[in-house]
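To assess whether ligand presence alters the predicted conformation, the chain was also submitted together with zinc ion. Input:
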Amino acid sequence: MDKPDHKKLGQELDLFCFSELVGSGLPLWTPKGTVIRNLLDTFVWELRQKQGYQLVDIPHITKKDLYIKSGHWDKFKDELFHIKTREDHEFALKPMNCPHHIQIFDRKPHSWREMPQRYASTTKMYRDEQTGELNGLARVRAITIDDAHVFCRQNQIKKEFSSVWDTIDTFYKTIGFQLTVRLSFHDPKQKEKYLGTPEMWKFAEDQLREIAKDKGVTAEEALGEAAFYGPKIDFTAKDSLGREWQVATIQLDINMPERFDLNCINEKGEKERLVMVHSAILGSIERSLAVLIEHFNGAFPLWLAPVQVAVLPISDKVTDYANKIAGKLTEAGIRFEVYEKNETIGKKIREAETQKIPYLVIVGAKEEENKTVTIRKRGGEDLGAMNVEDFVSKLKKEIESKSL
Ligand SMILES: [Zn+2]
Protein backbone atom coordinates (compact mmCIF):
# COMPACT_ATOMS: atom_id res chain seq x y z
CA MET A 1 0.00 0.00 0.00
CA ASP A 2 1.18 3.50 -0.78
CA LYS A 3 1.98 5.74 2.13
CA PRO A 4 -0.90 8.18 2.71
CA ASP A 5 -0.33 11.49 0.98
CA HIS A 6 -2.43 14.42 2.17
CA LYS A 7 -2.32 16.09 -1.26
CA LYS A 8 -3.79 13.02 -2.96
CA LEU A 9 -6.27 12.31 -0.15
CA GLY A 10 -7.27 15.97 -0.01
CA GLN A 11 -8.30 15.80 -3.63
CA GLU A 12 -10.00 12.39 -3.45
CA LEU A 13 -11.98 13.37 -0.36
CA ASP A 14 -12.57 16.90 -1.67
CA LEU A 15 -11.13 18.71 1.36
CA PHE A 16 -9.12 21.55 -0.18
CA CYS A 17 -7.81 22.82 -3.49
CA PHE A 18 -5.38 25.27 -5.03
CA SER A 19 -6.08 27.75 -7.79
CA GLU A 20 -3.50 29.09 -10.21
CA LEU A 21 -5.30 32.41 -10.18
CA VAL A 22 -5.10 32.65 -6.40
CA GLY A 23 -1.51 31.50 -6.30
CA SER A 24 0.64 28.71 -4.93
CA GLY A 25 0.91 28.19 -1.21
CA LEU A 26 -2.59 29.59 -0.74
CA PRO A 27 -4.92 26.66 -0.07
CA LEU A 28 -8.67 27.08 -0.55
CA TRP A 29 -10.93 25.08 1.74
CA THR A 30 -13.97 23.25 0.38
CA PRO A 31 -17.12 22.81 2.49
CA LYS A 32 -15.89 19.38 3.69
CA GLY A 33 -12.40 20.57 4.57
CA THR A 34 -13.85 23.59 6.35
CA VAL A 35 -15.96 21.31 8.56
CA ILE A 36 -12.83 19.56 9.84
CA ARG A 37 -10.92 22.82 10.37
CA ASN A 38 -13.76 24.34 12.32
CA LEU A 39 -14.30 21.26 14.48
CA LEU A 40 -10.64 21.14 15.47
CA ASP A 41 -10.59 24.85 16.18
CA THR A 42 -13.83 24.71 18.16
CA PHE A 43 -12.47 21.87 20.26
CA VAL A 44 -9.35 23.92 21.06
CA TRP A 45 -11.51 26.92 21.89
CA GLU A 46 -13.75 24.89 24.24
CA LEU A 47 -10.65 23.79 26.15
CA ARG A 48 -9.23 27.32 26.18
CA GLN A 49 -12.47 28.82 27.36
CA LYS A 50 -12.40 26.57 30.43
CA GLN A 51 -8.97 28.04 31.24
CA GLY A 52 -10.30 31.60 31.22
CA TYR A 53 -9.32 32.75 27.73
CA GLN A 54 -11.25 35.44 25.85
CA LEU A 55 -11.59 35.83 22.10
CA VAL A 56 -10.22 38.93 20.39
CA ASP A 57 -10.11 39.83 16.73
CA ILE A 58 -7.48 41.69 14.72
CA PRO A 59 -6.88 43.02 11.18
CA HIS A 60 -4.55 41.23 8.77
CA ILE A 61 -2.47 44.24 7.80
CA THR A 62 -0.65 46.73 9.90
CA LYS A 63 1.73 49.65 9.71
CA LYS A 64 5.40 48.86 9.46
CA ASP A 65 5.92 50.76 12.75
CA LEU A 66 4.37 47.99 14.84
CA TYR A 67 6.90 45.45 13.60
CA ILE A 68 9.80 47.81 13.99
CA LYS A 69 8.84 48.20 17.62
CA SER A 70 8.28 44.45 18.10
CA GLY A 71 11.53 43.49 16.43
CA HIS A 72 9.80 41.41 13.74
CA TRP A 73 10.83 43.85 11.03
CA ASP A 74 14.49 43.07 11.55
CA LYS A 75 14.03 39.34 12.01
CA PHE A 76 11.44 38.67 9.31
CA LYS A 77 11.88 41.49 6.80
CA ASP A 78 12.58 39.10 3.92
CA GLU A 79 9.58 36.91 4.69
CA LEU A 80 7.08 39.77 5.07
CA PHE A 81 4.54 40.61 2.40
CA HIS A 82 4.92 44.33 1.94
CA ILE A 83 2.04 46.63 1.09
CA LYS A 84 2.38 50.20 -0.17
CA THR A 85 -0.75 52.28 0.23
CA ARG A 86 -1.73 54.90 -2.33
CA GLU A 87 -0.63 57.55 0.14
CA ASP A 88 2.75 55.86 0.14
CA HIS A 89 2.53 54.45 3.64
CA GLU A 90 4.26 51.15 4.26
CA PHE A 91 2.13 48.34 5.61
CA ALA A 92 2.72 44.61 5.92
CA LEU A 93 0.56 41.50 6.02
CA LYS A 94 0.92 40.20 9.54
CA PRO A 95 3.53 37.42 9.98
CA MET A 96 2.61 37.09 13.70
CA ASN A 97 -0.24 38.09 15.96
CA CYS A 98 1.52 38.90 19.20
CA PRO A 99 2.07 42.62 18.56
CA HIS A 100 -1.63 43.08 17.77
CA HIS A 101 -2.71 41.31 20.94
CA ILE A 102 -0.24 43.50 22.82
CA GLN A 103 -1.93 46.61 21.45
CA ILE A 104 -5.29 45.33 22.69
CA PHE A 105 -3.88 44.63 26.13
CA ASP A 106 -2.19 48.01 26.24
CA ARG A 107 -5.35 49.97 25.44
CA LYS A 108 -5.70 50.88 29.12
CA PRO A 109 -3.84 50.54 32.43
CA HIS A 110 -4.38 47.26 34.32
CA SER A 111 -4.54 46.64 38.03
CA TRP A 112 -2.87 43.51 39.50
CA ARG A 113 -6.41 42.36 40.28
CA GLU A 114 -7.11 41.98 36.55
CA MET A 115 -4.08 39.79 35.92
CA PRO A 116 -3.69 37.55 34.03
CA GLN A 117 -5.39 38.65 30.83
CA ARG A 118 -5.72 35.82 28.32
CA TYR A 119 -6.47 36.52 24.65
CA ALA A 120 -7.07 34.02 21.86
CA SER A 121 -7.66 34.42 18.10
CA THR A 122 -7.76 31.85 15.37
CA THR A 123 -6.45 33.93 12.54
CA LYS A 124 -4.20 33.90 9.50
CA MET A 125 -0.64 35.04 9.20
CA TYR A 126 1.38 35.38 6.05
CA ARG A 127 4.93 34.44 5.09
CA ASP A 128 6.50 35.10 1.72
CA GLU A 129 7.91 31.58 1.36
CA GLN A 130 9.89 30.81 -1.78
CA THR A 131 7.86 28.97 -4.40
CA GLY A 132 10.25 26.01 -4.41
CA GLU A 133 9.73 25.50 -0.68
CA LEU A 134 5.95 25.24 -0.86
CA ASN A 135 4.53 21.78 -0.29
CA GLY A 136 0.79 21.02 -0.23
CA LEU A 137 -0.54 22.04 3.18
CA ALA A 138 2.76 21.34 4.90
CA ARG A 139 4.34 24.62 3.79
CA VAL A 140 2.02 27.48 2.78
CA ARG A 141 2.02 31.26 2.50
CA ALA A 142 -1.23 31.81 4.40
CA ILE A 143 -1.10 30.05 7.75
CA THR A 144 -4.06 29.82 10.12
CA ILE A 145 -3.01 29.62 13.73
CA ASP A 146 -4.95 29.13 16.96
CA ASP A 147 -2.91 31.80 18.63
CA ALA A 148 -3.14 32.85 22.25
CA HIS A 149 -1.31 35.24 24.54
CA VAL A 150 -1.39 35.53 28.28
CA PHE A 151 -0.24 38.74 29.93
CA CYS A 152 0.71 37.88 33.50
CA ARG A 153 2.93 38.57 36.49
CA GLN A 154 6.07 36.56 37.09
CA ASN A 155 4.50 34.60 39.93
CA GLN A 156 1.69 33.50 37.59
CA ILE A 157 3.92 31.98 34.89
CA LYS A 158 3.85 28.43 36.25
CA LYS A 159 0.11 28.24 36.60
CA GLU A 160 -0.46 29.63 33.10
CA PHE A 161 2.03 27.24 31.54
CA SER A 162 0.52 24.36 33.40
CA SER A 163 -3.00 25.09 32.16
CA VAL A 164 -1.84 25.36 28.52
CA TRP A 165 0.09 22.13 29.00
CA ASP A 166 -3.11 20.42 30.24
CA THR A 167 -5.00 21.69 27.19
CA ILE A 168 -2.31 20.31 24.88
CA ASP A 169 -2.44 16.97 26.71
CA THR A 170 -6.22 16.68 26.42
CA PHE A 171 -6.30 17.73 22.79
CA TYR A 172 -3.63 15.34 21.54
CA LYS A 173 -4.81 12.43 23.67
CA THR A 174 -8.18 12.82 21.98
CA ILE A 175 -6.57 12.73 18.54
CA GLY A 176 -4.57 9.65 19.57
CA PHE A 177 -1.09 11.15 19.58
CA GLN A 178 1.55 10.45 22.19
CA LEU A 179 3.52 13.51 23.16
CA THR A 180 7.15 14.08 24.02
CA VAL A 181 8.36 17.35 25.46
CA ARG A 182 11.39 19.40 24.57
CA LEU A 183 12.73 22.53 26.23
CA SER A 184 13.85 24.83 23.42
CA PHE A 185 16.49 27.16 24.83
CA HIS A 186 18.70 29.87 23.33
CA ASP A 187 22.25 29.25 22.27
CA PRO A 188 24.46 31.47 24.47
CA LYS A 189 27.16 31.31 21.77
CA GLN A 190 24.87 33.07 19.28
CA LYS A 191 23.67 36.05 21.32
CA GLU A 192 23.04 38.14 18.20
CA LYS A 193 20.08 35.89 17.32
CA TYR A 194 18.12 36.84 20.44
CA LEU A 195 16.64 39.86 22.17
CA GLY A 196 17.26 40.53 25.85
CA THR A 197 19.97 40.13 28.48
CA PRO A 198 21.64 36.91 29.73
CA GLU A 199 19.90 37.45 33.11
CA MET A 200 16.47 37.54 31.45
CA TRP A 201 17.21 34.33 29.59
CA LYS A 202 18.45 32.59 32.69
CA PHE A 203 15.31 33.51 34.60
CA ALA A 204 13.03 32.40 31.77
CA GLU A 205 14.79 29.11 31.11
CA ASP A 206 14.93 28.24 34.82
CA GLN A 207 11.17 28.78 35.01
CA LEU A 208 10.60 26.31 32.17
CA ARG A 209 12.88 23.72 33.75
CA GLU A 210 10.87 23.96 36.96
CA ILE A 211 7.56 23.66 35.13
CA ALA A 212 8.70 20.45 33.41
CA LYS A 213 9.93 19.14 36.76
CA ASP A 214 6.58 19.95 38.42
CA LYS A 215 4.84 17.99 35.65
CA GLY A 216 7.10 15.05 36.38
CA VAL A 217 8.44 15.05 32.84
CA THR A 218 12.02 14.53 31.77
CA ALA A 219 12.48 16.88 28.90
CA GLU A 220 15.44 17.13 26.57
CA GLU A 221 17.01 20.60 26.40
CA ALA A 222 17.66 21.80 22.85
CA LEU A 223 20.05 24.74 22.59
CA GLY A 224 19.46 27.16 19.72
CA GLU A 225 15.77 26.25 19.35
CA ALA A 226 14.29 29.18 21.32
CA ALA A 227 12.22 31.93 19.72
CA PHE A 228 14.14 35.17 19.37
CA TYR A 229 12.18 36.68 22.26
CA GLY A 230 12.23 33.78 24.73
CA PRO A 231 12.51 30.02 25.45
CA LYS A 232 9.75 27.51 24.57
CA ILE A 233 8.31 24.20 25.58
CA ASP A 234 7.75 22.26 22.36
CA PHE A 235 5.56 19.19 22.09
CA THR A 236 6.33 16.48 19.58
CA ALA A 237 3.90 13.73 18.60
CA LYS A 238 4.35 10.40 16.88
CA ASP A 239 1.71 9.66 14.25
CA SER A 240 0.34 6.32 13.02
CA LEU A 241 3.17 6.12 10.49
CA GLY A 242 5.79 6.49 13.22
CA ARG A 243 6.77 9.97 12.08
CA GLU A 244 7.50 12.71 14.60
CA TRP A 245 5.91 16.13 14.32
CA GLN A 246 6.28 19.24 16.35
CA VAL A 247 2.65 19.92 17.15
CA ALA A 248 2.24 22.50 19.88
CA THR A 249 4.26 25.09 21.69
CA ILE A 250 4.21 27.28 24.80
CA GLN A 251 6.62 30.20 24.87
CA LEU A 252 7.74 32.43 27.68
CA ASP A 253 8.43 35.98 26.56
CA ILE A 254 10.27 38.49 28.68
CA ASN A 255 11.27 40.69 25.76
CA MET A 256 8.07 41.94 24.13
CA PRO A 257 6.76 43.24 27.48
CA GLU A 258 10.04 45.15 27.82
CA ARG A 259 9.86 46.56 24.26
CA PHE A 260 6.22 47.57 24.61
CA ASP A 261 6.53 48.63 28.26
CA LEU A 262 3.75 46.35 29.51
CA ASN A 263 2.85 46.78 33.16
CA CYS A 264 0.24 46.30 35.76
CA ILE A 265 -0.17 48.44 38.84
CA ASN A 266 0.76 46.16 41.75
CA GLU A 267 -0.44 46.02 45.37
CA LYS A 268 1.95 48.82 46.32
CA GLY A 269 0.58 51.09 43.62
CA GLU A 270 3.77 50.72 41.58
CA LYS A 271 4.24 49.77 37.94
CA GLU A 272 5.27 46.12 37.66
CA ARG A 273 6.76 44.66 34.47
CA LEU A 274 4.71 41.78 33.06
CA VAL A 275 5.65 38.70 31.06
CA MET A 276 3.84 37.10 28.13
CA VAL A 277 3.01 33.48 27.43
CA HIS A 278 2.49 32.65 23.75
CA SER A 279 0.82 29.37 22.87
CA ALA A 280 -0.76 27.45 20.02
CA ILE A 281 -2.37 24.05 20.42
CA LEU A 282 -2.85 23.19 16.76
CA GLY A 283 -0.18 25.59 15.56
CA SER A 284 -0.58 25.93 11.82
CA ILE A 285 -4.01 24.46 11.08
CA GLU A 286 -2.86 23.76 7.51
CA ARG A 287 0.14 21.76 8.69
CA SER A 288 -1.97 20.01 11.36
CA LEU A 289 -4.45 18.99 8.70
CA ALA A 290 -1.64 17.64 6.50
CA VAL A 291 -0.48 15.52 9.45
CA LEU A 292 -3.99 14.42 10.49
CA ILE A 293 -5.16 13.52 6.98
CA GLU A 294 -2.16 11.21 6.64
CA HIS A 295 -2.34 9.94 10.24
CA PHE A 296 -5.96 8.84 9.76
CA ASN A 297 -5.37 7.97 6.11
CA GLY A 298 -8.47 10.09 5.41
CA ALA A 299 -10.67 7.92 7.65
CA PHE A 300 -11.51 10.54 10.27
CA PRO A 301 -13.16 9.52 13.53
CA LEU A 302 -16.90 10.12 13.58
CA TRP A 303 -16.75 13.47 15.39
CA LEU A 304 -14.37 14.89 12.76
CA ALA A 305 -15.70 13.20 9.62
CA PRO A 306 -17.07 15.82 7.20
CA VAL A 307 -19.75 13.34 6.16
CA GLN A 308 -20.67 11.07 9.04
CA VAL A 309 -23.37 8.96 7.41
CA ALA A 310 -24.18 7.90 3.85
CA VAL A 311 -27.82 7.01 3.30
CA LEU A 312 -28.05 4.43 0.51
CA PRO A 313 -31.52 3.66 -0.88
CA ILE A 314 -31.60 0.27 -2.60
CA SER A 315 -34.04 1.52 -5.23
CA ASP A 316 -36.21 4.49 -6.23
CA LYS A 317 -39.17 2.88 -4.52
CA VAL A 318 -37.81 3.76 -1.09
CA THR A 319 -36.94 7.40 -1.86
CA ASP A 320 -39.63 8.70 0.48
CA TYR A 321 -38.46 6.48 3.30
CA ALA A 322 -34.81 7.52 2.68
CA ASN A 323 -35.89 11.18 2.89
CA LYS A 324 -37.65 10.49 6.14
CA ILE A 325 -34.42 9.03 7.55
CA ALA A 326 -32.57 12.08 6.20
CA GLY A 327 -35.01 14.33 8.08
CA LYS A 328 -34.26 12.55 11.35
CA LEU A 329 -30.51 12.90 10.78
CA THR A 330 -30.88 16.63 10.01
CA GLU A 331 -32.87 17.08 13.18
CA ALA A 332 -30.13 15.37 15.18
CA GLY A 333 -27.40 17.54 13.62
CA ILE A 334 -25.71 14.59 11.91
CA ARG A 335 -23.74 15.35 8.72
CA PHE A 336 -24.92 13.03 5.97
CA GLU A 337 -25.35 12.53 2.23
CA VAL A 338 -28.10 10.61 0.45
CA TYR A 339 -26.85 8.58 -2.52
CA GLU A 340 -29.77 9.06 -4.84
CA LYS A 341 -28.12 8.18 -8.12
CA ASN A 342 -29.65 5.39 -10.15
CA GLU A 343 -26.94 2.85 -9.40
CA THR A 344 -26.74 -0.61 -7.87
CA ILE A 345 -26.47 -0.79 -4.09
CA GLY A 346 -23.08 -2.50 -4.51
CA LYS A 347 -21.75 0.49 -6.41
CA LYS A 348 -23.16 2.93 -3.85
CA ILE A 349 -21.48 1.03 -1.03
CA ARG A 350 -18.15 1.05 -2.87
CA GLU A 351 -18.42 4.79 -3.50
CA ALA A 352 -19.22 5.55 0.14
CA GLU A 353 -16.31 3.33 1.19
CA THR A 354 -13.87 5.28 -1.02
CA GLN A 355 -15.13 8.46 0.62
CA LYS A 356 -14.26 6.81 3.98
CA ILE A 357 -17.65 7.66 5.48
CA PRO A 358 -17.92 6.16 8.99
CA TYR A 359 -21.47 4.74 8.72
CA LEU A 360 -23.53 3.50 5.79
CA VAL A 361 -27.29 3.32 6.21
CA ILE A 362 -28.91 0.93 3.78
CA VAL A 363 -32.64 1.31 3.20
CA GLY A 364 -34.80 -1.00 1.11
CA ALA A 365 -38.36 -2.30 1.09
CA LYS A 366 -37.71 -4.60 4.05
CA GLU A 367 -36.35 -1.73 6.17
CA GLU A 368 -39.30 0.46 5.21
CA GLU A 369 -41.75 -2.22 6.18
CA ASN A 370 -40.05 -2.86 9.55
CA LYS A 371 -39.36 0.86 10.12
CA THR A 372 -35.65 0.12 10.55
CA VAL A 373 -32.35 0.85 8.85
CA THR A 374 -29.49 -1.56 8.14
CA ILE A 375 -26.15 -0.24 9.34
CA ARG A 376 -22.74 -1.00 7.97
CA LYS A 377 -19.61 0.41 9.53
CA ARG A 378 -16.66 1.80 7.57
CA GLY A 379 -14.43 -1.16 6.84
CA GLY A 380 -17.36 -3.49 6.23
CA GLU A 381 -18.58 -4.58 9.67
CA ASP A 382 -22.31 -5.27 9.51
CA LEU A 383 -24.24 -3.94 12.49
CA GLY A 384 -27.58 -5.30 11.25
CA ALA A 385 -30.96 -3.65 11.50
CA MET A 386 -31.99 -1.12 14.12
CA ASN A 387 -34.53 1.64 14.39
CA VAL A 388 -33.46 5.15 13.46
CA GLU A 389 -33.78 6.55 16.98
CA ASP A 390 -31.39 3.94 18.37
CA PHE A 391 -28.95 4.59 15.55
CA VAL A 392 -29.04 8.35 16.14
CA SER A 393 -28.44 8.01 19.87
CA LYS A 394 -25.55 5.63 19.20
CA LEU A 395 -24.04 8.24 16.86
CA LYS A 396 -24.56 11.05 19.33
CA LYS A 397 -22.82 9.12 22.08
CA GLU A 398 -19.86 8.36 19.82
CA ILE A 399 -19.61 12.00 18.69
CA GLU A 400 -19.87 13.37 22.19
CA SER A 401 -17.06 11.16 23.49
CA LYS A 402 -14.91 12.03 20.44
CA SER A 403 -13.93 8.36 20.34
CA LEU A 404 -11.33 7.24 17.85
ZN1 LIG B 1 2.81 35.19 19.94
